[in-house]
Design goal:
This protein has 460 residues and is an alpha/beta fold. It has 3 domains: 85 residues, 3-Layer(aba) Sandwich (Udp-n-acetylmuramoylalanyl-d-glutamate--2,6- Diaminopimelate Ligase, Chain: A, domain 1), CATH 3.40.1390; 210 residues, Mur-like, catalytic domain (UDP-N-acetylmuramoyl-L-alanine:D-glutamate ligase, 3-Layer(aba) Sandwich), CATH 3.40.1190.10; 129 residues, Protein-Tyrosine Phosphatase, Chain A, CATH 3.90.190. 35% of the residues lie in helices and 20% in strands. The chain has 17 helices and 21 strands. The strands form 5 sheets. It has a 6-stranded parallel beta sheet with strand order 8-9-7-10-11-12, sandwiched between helices. It has a 6-stranded mixed beta sheet with strand order 16-17-21-18-19-20, with helices on both faces. Helix 3 packs parallel to helix 6, helix 14 packs across helix 15 and helix 16 packs across helix 17. The longest helix has 16 residues. The two termini are 31 Å apart.
Length: 460
């Protein structure tokens, strides 16, 4: 991601204090870069360290390409003639640049957090807001302490709103990102079992995610609260500025939802002058929730109902490469629900509920392991298997976690596949014409390989 955010020596002194005092008084950098492949002359280069890379190894290349300033944790790697700032953490330095740049703008900034559905929600919210304004949004799922600041640094005077996804995998990240993003509006999709290796349990997830609500409360922002989620609904009374939404309970934004025979949602809402009906092109129960989130954000920002209706009706999710978010594919008499993008317990249950709604003579759930569940992994995989056999006629599982869970439960209609080829063969053995097959698992399971085998030669 490139940007042209400008910082003077005065700005640099504001951010880095004494570390910037030796810089030339007329120094101005245009654009912040963390990647020498896209760096252009005049940029500041921030030498990030990661598990598999060290940006300090690219400092010489950055200088050759015309970097005007180097942010480094090791000044010995920078020639004395090149302006540099020594940092205890270049990651935090990158965030500081984004924080200051964000403060230059007074536009609405919507932060989206939550255990599941963040990226899909961000995309549909941004699409709806773009019906009336120029919107900056997080690309893909670049929602961490690198992707978020690089997104904020792209903010320009042309933007009239921003939709920023913020994610976490350890305690304290949402607090850091919320302070960096400085949202005027914030939405948490749900509280669910995510990244339990470090967040430990649901209480830990809740404490981490609601750091966004804490920021909004402290800075008089607008909280958009999913009151279908018991752990979130209890925060409504703590806000002076809150908008509630949901499908299952009374809320400010409470659309009626129906589904066609391909489980595409239709939303109908009557809320004062805010009345509309929209047939979505997306599939599944989760997409109905995503659209409801977009309705709540649009209403909070006074987007006309006619614009919202047209935006929801025309929204198409970004093209995926093999894996998808509840994308419907067909091959040799089978309907495939490609939901291979990722998985945690909440998104698994949502996908299984979508499978149950899909009209078919036989429903087959193909499930891969859920990652990053820590000590709760075995218990959570057992819960999902208990649910799966209620929603599907046949359950085919892949991965050691699901295999161990199945051995403990001894459930009928559960088949363990030792690999993608075995999984493909099992699907063909148990399916009949018109069967619908849900394929879902964590990204590391690469469940799209099963779909590739099913659709080989079909033109999908």
């Amino acid at each position: 991601m490139t940007n042209t955010a400008t910082f003077t020596r005065t700005d640099l002194t504001t951010l880095f204090g004494h570390a910037a005092e030796a810089l030339p008084s007329d120094l101005v950098v245009s654009g912040i870069s963390t990647d020498t492949r896209s760096l252009v002359a005049g940029n500041a280069f921030v030498a990030l360290r990661g598990e598999r890379f060290d940006g300090h190894d690219k400092i010489d290349e950055a200088i050759r390409k015309g970097a005007r300033l180097i942010l480094t944790e090791d000044t010995s790697r920078v020639p004395p003639s090149v302006p540099a700032i020594a940092c205890a953490s270049t990651l935090h330095a990158l965030g500081s640049f984004a924080w200051l740049h964000r403060r230059r703008f007074s536009i609405p900034v919507v932060a989206i957090a939550g255990a599941a559905g963040k990226t899909s929600t961000k995309d549909v919210v941004a699409h709806v807001l773009a019906s009336t304004m120029t919107v900056l949004k997080t690309e893909a799922n670049f929602n961490n302490q690198v992707g978020t600041p690089l997104t904020l640094l792209q903010m320009t005077d042309e933007h009239q709103a921003a939709v920023i996804e913020i994610g976490t995998n350890e305690p304290g990240e949402i607090e850091i990102l919320a302070a960096m993003v400085q949202p005027t509006h914030g939405l948490i999709t749900n509280i669910g079992k995510e990244h339990l290796e470090k967040l430990i349990d649901l209480d830990g997830v809740e404490k981490e995610e609601v750091a966004l609500f804490d920021f909004l409360r402290d800075h008089h922002g607008v909280a958009l609260v999913n009151v279908d989620d018991d752990r979130l609904s209890k925060y409504v009374p703590t806000f002076t500025r809150a908008i509630t939404f949901g499908l299952e309970s009374g809320a400010d934004i409470h659309p009626t939802v129906s589904f066609d025979d391909e489980v595409r949602p239709s939303l109908h809402i009557v809320h004062g002058s805010y009345t509309l009906r929209a047939q979505l092109r997306t599939h599944g129960l989760a997409s109905a929730y995503n659209a409801t989130c977009a309705l709540a954000v649009a209403w909070s920002l006074h987007v006309p109902a006619a614009n919202v209706q047209h935006a929801l009706a025309t929204y198409q999710p970004p093209e995926s490469h093999g894996y998808g978010r509840m994308r419907v594919q067909r091959s040799d008499g089978l309907t495939i629900l490609n939901d291979c993008y990722n998985a945690n317990p909440e998104s698994m249950v949502m996908a299984l509920k979508t499978l149950q709604r899909f009209p078919a003579p036989k429903r087959i759930a193909v499930l891969g392991d859920m990652r990053e569940l820590g000590a709760s992994s075995e218990e959570e995989h057992m819960h999902i298997l208990n649910d799966a056999h209620l929603y599907a006629d046949v359950v085919i599982i892949m991965g050691d976690e699901f295999r161990r869970a199945a051995e403990r439960l001894d459930l009928p209609h559960v088949i363990h596949a030792a690999g993608v080829h075995a999984c493909h063969d099992h699907i063909l053995e148990v399916s009949t014409a018109g069967s619908v097959v849900l394929v879902k698992g964590s990204r590391g399971m690469a469940m799209e390989q099963v779909i590739d085998l099913l659709t080989e030669g079909s033109g999908e």
